[in-house]
Design brief:
Elements: E1 4-9, H1 10-16, H2 18-26, H3 28-45, E2 48-54, E3 62-65, E4 71-74, H4 81-92, E5 97-101, H5 105-113, E6 117-119, H6 121-145
């Protein structure tokens, strides 16, 4: 079975999820951090390796991650997150089961042309909620055994 990779359009998620959009209006960095926290939980509870891509403001593209953590990419100046997502989807589609999460219809079509699957922002939110619930049930089982 191929490794599963989830590539997330970070700002698409933030602006489609009302709680994150509200947080972004007050402090954009806090909204990005909260999205990353949720995606880390999904990765920890699933077999997905998660990468999130944000439109950056810096002079160069960056790929930051922590050991066992999700991969965080910022596009460089003059480049969009969409182009980074497309490059990642093309790179990994041959060796991995890639899913791109975005509400950008053109981005979804492009990712699918590379052989990736796609999901909407709402579908990703439901995946995260299901993973959180599954972890909660497992924790409750462990508590009962003590």
């Amino acid at each position: 079975m191929k490794p599963r990779v989830l590539i997330v359009d970070g700002h698409s998620m933030i602006f489609q999820w009302p709680d994150l959009a509200d947080l972004h209006a007050r402090k954009s960095a806090a909204a990005r951090e909260e999205l990353v926290r949720r995606l880390r939980g999904l990765q920890d509870a699933s077999d997905w390796t998660v990468a999130v891509v944000f439109d950056g403001r810096g002079a160069k593209a960056s790929d930051a991650s922590e050991p066992g953590g999700i991969h965080i990419f910022y596009s460089k100046a003059g480049q969009t997150a969409d182009s980074v997502i497309e490059r990642l989807a093309a790179k990994y589609a041959l060796t991995c089961d890639v899913t791109v999460a975005t509400d950008d219809r053109l981005e979804r079509v492009t990712a699918e042309a590379f052989g990736s699957s796609s999901m909407s922002c709402m579908q990703l939110r439901l995946e995260i909620e299901a993973a959180d619930s599954a972890v909660g049930r497992e924790i409750e089982k462990l508590r009962r055994r003590r």
